[in-house]
Amino acid sequence: MRVLPPSSAGPWRSPLRGPWLTSVLGMVLLVGIPVLFVTGLLSYAAYNPDLSPVNDKTPDKGLLGLYLFSWPTHPYWLYRLTQGIHVTFGIMLVPVLLAKLWSVVPKLFALPPLRSVGHALERLSLLLLVGGGLFEFTTGLLNVQLDYVFPGSFYPLHFYGAWVFLGAVLAHVALRLPAALRAIRTLDLRAELRTPTVRTRPEPADAGGLVPGRPAEPTMSRRGALGMVGLGSAALFLVTAGQSVGGPLRRTALLAPHGRAPGSGPNGFPVNKTAAAARVGLRDTGAGWRLTVRGNGHTVRLTLDELRRLPQHGSSLPIACVEGWSTGDQYWEGVRLRDLAALVGHHADAPDVFVESVQPAGSFRAVALRANQVGDPRSLLALRVGGADLSLDHGRPARVIVPNAPGVMNTKWVRRLTFGSTDVGERT
Ligand SMILES: Nc1nc2c(c(=O)[nH]1)N[C@H]1C(S)=C(S)[C@@H](COP(=O)(O)O)O[C@H]1N2
Ligand SMILES: [Mo]
């Protein structure tokens, strides 16, 4: 049997593989992945997890929560933008990630698997890098696209996975960036984009063993390979971005589960969880419904008609879900949260509030809002949207709407507001 030198790496014979191609794809990820990290960490901060246990899906975060800050209500569209970018870029980077993995596949299967201690460490960091990357993209995609199928909650998996992935990416960049910058200068991108398949030559042999020792005839040019990745990303953009961007792209958002308007009329915007799915019916939200407002030792109970007789205000705000879909600005009308706080004696400074739904169970039935969110004059307990009463699926008779908050904070079918508290568990 003939022993192959490392650079021949057995079955991997594509003449396109080489440090240049890997580095070009790496540079795209080097720009894209930090954007995913930053927008992801912002999304985590937007949940205000340090405010209340009900907001905190990762209570064991320890030092990883050090950067948290009180999420602002201005500008009202910021979360829609950052989370739209997070999900859209994440989906668009999938072809780049897969192409990059394809380009280094001889390394992933290199034999012998461990040559020295240094080699073992390098392989371990690659395992965390590849495993972490695949894990983050898979959990993210599944959360957005499907009924979630991973065991356990999405949030801790994606959150802790992100830190592992970040560590591996930083190590990888520190180790590889100088070589990648050198490799990228070995071919001229613009010339490659003009080179057809017949004139495609392998890159010069490399120490890393990406370039095959016995290259096969090219079946595709580098232009073709990069074009395929680019077209893949562009196609994914076309079938998903509409869920966040809106406008005419909304009609092409074929892959976005909540992307397209499910109906017409004022309540014809996406529904994350229907009343039926939340096991909320007319029994809980009909004539017998009362809103309980508590705080400062006072308790006030209001019927829907009494709520309607309080000063009504309007604000145009979107719903922007962590899953990346968002509505355009909807015109909500109802009672300001800070006016409701005043009903129980919080006149000067708005306090935090604990919001509870009539929904009997589920992790989104309660949420805590921070004082800045309560105090914002655009924050409402909404009774109407687009000039019509809320539909049952959108939270009839009353739901919270807050500027620049993740959709999950806009609790539907509200039953009780406790001002000056962020966790009613201990007090109920
Ligand atoms: N009671 C209750 N309120 C809820 C939810 C829920 O599951 N239960 N889902 C939240 C989430 S995750 C989002 S994105 C928004 C979506 O609002 P919509 O269904 O009216 O579009 O409602 C929020 N309010
Ligand atoms: Mo959501």
UniProtKB/TrEMBL annotation:
<keyword id="KW-0812">Transmembrane</keyword>
<feature type="transmembrane region" description="Helical">
    <location>
        <begin position="62"/>
        <end position="79"/>
    </location>
</feature>
<dbReference type="InterPro" id="IPR000572">
    <property type="entry name" value="OxRdtase_Mopterin-bd_dom"/>
</dbReference>
<protein>
    <submittedName>
        <fullName>Membrane protein</fullName>
    </submittedName>
</protein>
<feature type="transmembrane region" description="Helical">
    <location>
        <begin position="85"/>
        <end position="105"/>
    </location>
</feature>
<feature type="domain" description="Oxidoreductase molybdopterin-binding">
    <location>
        <begin position="287"/>
        <end position="422"/>
    </location>
</feature>
<keyword id="KW-1133">Transmembrane helix</keyword>
<keyword id="KW-0472">Membrane</keyword>
<feature type="transmembrane region" description="Helical">
    <location>
        <begin position="157"/>
        <end position="175"/>
    </location>
</feature>
<feature type="transmembrane region" description="Helical">
    <location>
        <begin position="20"/>
        <end position="42"/>
    </location>
</feature>
<feature type="transmembrane region" description="Helical">
    <location>
        <begin position="126"/>
        <end position="145"/>
    </location>
</feature>
<dbReference type="InterPro" id="IPR036374">
    <property type="entry name" value="OxRdtase_Mopterin-bd_sf"/>
</dbReference>
<dbReference type="Pfam" id="PF00174">
    <property type="entry name" value="Oxidored_molyb"/>
</dbReference>
<feature type="transmembrane region" description="Helical">
    <location>
        <begin position="224"/>
        <end position="242"/>
    </location>
</feature>
